[in-house]
Every structure is written in structure tokens, then in C-alpha cells.
Amino acid sequence: MACDPKQRDRWQKQLDVVLKRLDSYYKAEEAILSGAQEYRIGTRFLKRGDLKYIKEEIKDLENRKDELENALENCIGPNKRKTFRIIPRDL
Question: Domain-by-domain residue ranges, the chain?
């Protein structure tokens, strides 16, 4: 099955964006785990990203990455169904 080159390019661009975002979220998670989530200087208090939210976003981005990699490998869009119709029959 031949893939449409334009669609393939679109999937590759989306994959590149997802990989960049995933790398950023990994760095944020690492920074939080090393103790940079919140700190206080005098009376001022700074809190950065929430670890729970970052882990959820990493999970979502990893799922999206897998979908796009499968789309590129199999020429089937990440949102397309593989089964079109099922007809139940009583034999």
C-alpha cells in the first residue's frame, strides 16, 4: 500500500513536534525530581509545574508518539479504524 507523500510528511512533522515536547517534559520532570519544584526566598514563594500534571502529559505524548510511529510504518492514519464493518451472523 503506497502512502500519500503529503500525509507522510504531515505525520513526520507532527512526530517531530511531539518528540520536542516530550523532551521538554522529561527535562521538567527531572528538574522537579531534583528539588526545583518550589522554593522560597525571603517572603516570596515560587512554585513551578505540578509533577502529577507533567507525568500525565508525558503519558499522553508517549501514546501520541506511538500512534504517529505506527502511522508512518503502516501507512494507516493514527485516527483511522482498521475494521470498517462487522456483520453478525447466526449460523
Answer: 10-74
Distance CA 90, CA 46 (A): 65
Q: Across the chain, what does the average pLDDT equal?
A: 84
pLDDT digits (tens, 9 = 90+) for 67-80: 899 888 887 766 66
The per-residue DSSP string of the chain comes to -PPPHHHHHHHHHHHHHHHHHHHHHHHHHHHIIIIISEEEETTEEEE---HHHHHHHHHHHHHHHHHHHHHHHHS--TT--S---------
Tell me the C-alpha to C-alpha distance, in Å, between residue 23 and each of 18, 29, 37.
9, 10, 18
